[in-house]
Amino acid sequence: MIIMNSLEYIKEDIQNIAEAILSVLNIDVTIVDENLIRIAGTGRYLRKIGERLDGYSAFKKSLEEQISIIIDDPHASNICKECDHKTYCKEHAEVCCPITLDGYSYGVIGLIAFTESQKEIIRENRDGLLNFLGKMADLISNKLKAQINTEELELEKKKLETLIDSMDRAIVSVETNGKIDKYNSKFKEIFNLNDSEVEGKSVVKVLSFINEPLNKDFKRYKSGMFFYRKDGYEIKGIYNINKISVKDKLKGYVIDFIDKREAIKNYNRINKDYKIVLDNIIGESNIIKAIKNESYIASKSSSTVLITGESGTGKELFARAIHNHSDRADNPFIAVNCAAIPDNLLESELFGYEEGAFTGAKKGGKLGKFELAHKGTIFLDEIGDMSLHLQAKLLRVLQERELDKIGGKSNISIDVRIISATNKDLEDMVSKGIFREDLYYRLNVIPIHLPSLKERREDIPLLIDYTIKEYSNKLGKNVDHVDKDVLKVMMDYRWPGNIRELQNIIEYSINMSSSSVITLDSIPQKIKSTNINELIDDNREIRTLEDLEKQEIIRALNKFKNFKKDKELVAKALGISRATLYRKLEKYNIVSK
Ligand SMILES: Nc1ncnc2c1ncn2[C@@H]1O[C@H](COP(=O)(O)OP(=O)(O)OP(=O)(O)O)[C@@H](O)[C@H]1O
């Protein structure tokens, strides 16, 4: 919208003013705009509205020099002598005055005498008329100012409305008595309301959960969780109430609301540009290529995926890429680290609870990660750390596709794809009875095993290159490669922490580098002497040989348990005879089928 700051836009008012002046003074009036185009006029000037005053004239001088001019004797006037219209001018006298606003000329208003008697009026009232015309010019410029202000306000209002309407937050402003004043479209949308249910209504009638914070305990509840129900429609989210004060006087409130599920969806949408896809995962080794291929196939299915691999091998990265290639990509990807949350909290984190489920339960209850991941993917990282109690609950969710919330009266059906990951040997845990076998099979429909970095050394140069770029950028340095000695050391190193460790080492080295190349001087000491470090780095408890032997036998038995000639295969795999195998089973008290 362009602000209409020209007399053209108030010409009707100006014409009324011209006619009013004529009726009082009985002298013709004409008004031109900043381009000397006549926009109002009386008498013979009425027909000339819209015409332009060409050439030099008193009006032009008045406009350009912002001065009032009075001509009561055209023959003696210097202005008239120079005027381009002098040969056919029928004017006997004139008074004109510039219309200015904020130092800018918007036009000129003039009184014109076409008869001797009109000329006499001008002559006799020179000062009075000049003063009067000045007042009329002010009247017009004030009118123009009011018009500009109104349009500016209108423009600001439109901008604000558009801004507020395009927000992904619902917003409502209320007066001090709680009456709804303004709201945006998102507000109606998330609460499933139409204008007639909102306009002028009391906010606590529309949203009962606002009653307490607004009327009882503002300090305590100025933000909180809400649960809203209307005709079978339900949403949960978070509200914030802000006071609006003018000169320390409370004038009302602005309340904003976030629909939790939508916020997560939007988060995912916003991050779409940075969404990891399989092509962005660095690695050209055959093994990684094969895994990318398996992952792509897995992304097109809704079966569970179990990603195994040492810490830092990219399990979460692959899980995200699988989600992003799937038809769930527009819905949430929710990652939960089962090892990082204490067991009693993990249950409510995963499954949520209803309001009043237990002492200390939050008002409005809590949405569980499974609910948040509805129609998307949940990534259960470190699944091997989940307690048996929660394993049983998870199994139920997998089997029934329903959630049984703590304190919930009814079950909630969910549509979530499960990808889990672990760096533990789940099969071993199953054999020891610390991971449920039935759950293991449910989770492991599509197994993906990520190799450690040392198993795909050919990818190390690529990863170094990529990571240098990433961290050089982040740290504002211009390091761009490693020299050949560093490359050799890095190719030989054992990388127990895999890619995460490689990132850590590159970040350190970039910090230590003073040129564009990373040399042996800038890399950490620990990776320079691989062999010694292998010994130092491996902090695992030393196990007895008997213990190791027992574990390997159990592993082999598990591996071949579904084969007919399992004992023969086990013995062969262990490099011992069947008789020795039986002896050892007895020795270690291992019961097998
Ligand atoms: N192939 C890869 N290309 C680029 N970066 C990678 C690659 N694989 C992993 N990374 C990066 O390495 C880091 C560790 O990856 P991620 O967290 O996926 O590993 P993880 O196996 O899930 O680790 P943990 O078991 O410790 O949770 C992340 O910063 C990730 O972006």
From TrEMBL:
CDD domains: AAA (cd00009). It comes from Romboutsia faecis. Residues 136-170 form a coiled coil. Pfam families: AAA_lid_14, HTH_8, Sigma54_activat. InterPro entries: AAA+_ATPase (IPR003593), AAA_lid_NorR (IPR058031), GAF-like_dom_sf (IPR029016), Homeodomain-like_sf (IPR009057), HTH_Fis (IPR002197), P-loop_NTPase (IPR027417), PAS (IPR000014), PAS-like_dom_sf (IPR035965). Residues 281-511 form the Sigma-54 factor interaction domain. This is Sigma 54-interacting transcriptional regulator. Residues 156-212 form the PAS domain. The keyword Transferase does not apply. Keywords: ATP-binding, Coiled coil, DNA-binding, Nucleotide-binding, Transcription, Transcription regulation.
